[in-house]
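Protocol step 4 of 5: obtain the predicted structure for the target chain.
Materials: sequence only (see below). No template structures provided, no constraints applied. The aim of this step is simply to have a reference model before the mutagenesis design in step 5. Sequence pasted as it appears in the construct record:
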Amino acid sequence: MQQTARPLIQGKTGFTILEAVVSLGVLGIFFTAIATILQITLRTVGESRVRTVAAALAQEKLETARNLPYALVGTIGGIPNVPNGLPQEEVISINGQDFTVKTNIVFIDDPFDGLGETDSIPTDYKRIRVSVEWGGPYQSRLPLVLLSDIAPQGLETLSGLGTLSIVVFNAQGDPVAGAQVHLEAPNLTPAVNLDTITNSEGKVYLPGVQPCFECYQVTVTKTGYSTDRTFGTTEVANPAKPHLSVYQGQVSQNSFAIDQLATITVTATSSRESGYIPFSGVEFTLQGTKTVGTNTLDEPVYKVNQNYVTGGGGNVTISNLEWDIYKIIIPEDSSIDFAGSIPLNPFAVGPGGHPYITLVTTANSPHSLVVTVTDPAKNPLPNATITIATDAAIATKSAGPTGRGDLGQAIFSFLNQTTYNILITLTGYIEATSSVSVSNDVQELFILNPNPTPTP
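Step 4 output (structure tokens):
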């Protein structure tokens, strides 16, 4: 009788490859989750421990200030200014972790007994602010800040001091909160060297300031913003905003304006006759309208008055400009002349803006005239016919076309040093006539008014 072999174990099979891959994937997700949770837990514990140390450090600074005699509660170079007082900034290392401790102490003028000049002694009490920051693997996202007010034990006794009030606003006249204000008076004894920030109203109010004449140097800025500051007579002969003065029993009010920095890109080209080819190596001066004062000849000292040169492709990008009205000036000894620009020269640059300027140039001539034709809204008008003449017609040109850097503009080169009659015509507009005296390089703007609409 023949026997058939049978398997000892029936109904048992192994894992398929797909099942094995899925199982490994599930295990991978599980262990990744465990690792992530562990990492978060360790980081939370680490951050908590470091923050606890920072809080203890800040509290220690407050207690140190509270235990000082009231007259000695102040910072070195601050307001109040105590020669052997607390440092405004220091780095303290604890268990290998560095902490940056910033201490700010200011007088507070309580409104209960009047404010400013209505209060004979505006230094009612002192407010101490301690902030602690740290780096490392558990770096602080925000500084840890503690505040405390410290009042004198008796009546207010400080007198003979003044108050400094600083207001910071932007281009629209709105207050700038969080602006960085640096106050310095190196010639005082003790010297003042203070950094503070504006409040939500864009203000810094400092009672208890030592009186002096034009001794407080102030610089105001903010990350990504322009800078406004005072100037001394060694920098500008007649500064528009001299270093600040503080008078006994008075509030010295001062304002500063900052806003987001802007950028411009200038592209220089050749003339219309040369086909508007990009032109590298063009030297020009960028000049704003804002001044910081005048020199000994009573000439304006401009805040921006810098030289630039176009690079490859005729381009140059100029950054860190504040809002202003700027104009491009070609040097008198240049081999080229200004032949037009879009936007029209001068042009406005707003806060945080990035306008692109096309600058058209042509060969230099001793005497030239650039005529710009616009409508009443100052929009350039293309293709206007411009004729210049003395006793007889000398030259006729068309204003630049749309899409070009000399839109609404035309240059007349190699003219005589004399007076020319101008006639400008354009379909749909009332013609304009005038006379222009030409000497060196002259730019003239003409506004054309539309023809009146016929009454039906």
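Step 4 remarks: The mean pLDDT is 87. The domain at 261-364 is CATH 2.60.40.10 (Immunoglobulin-like).
Proceed to step 5.
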